[in-house]
Request: fold
Amino acid sequence: MKLNPLTDRVVLKTVEAEETTKGGIILTGSAKEKPEVAEVIAVGPGGMVDGKEVVMTVKVGDKVITGKYTGTQVKVDGEELNIVRQGDILAIVED
Reply:
């Protein structure tokens, strides 16, 4: 099944937290907690939302940071995804 988000919605897949640091230190479960980093799986077309034109600035493949409890959790083909509004995305992560 494929999700096609509407208007300013974005479908995200959570990226697993790193288990080791660059220096090789293994992190425990509590130490891995940090902002929610996710990969963009699908992007809506944008358009008029609440009387304002919304232009989509994220694209499929971007890694983004969202709030911990943002969006709606859905399970598709056994995979947990999160649907958020583009405005709920806090930042795009660049390597």
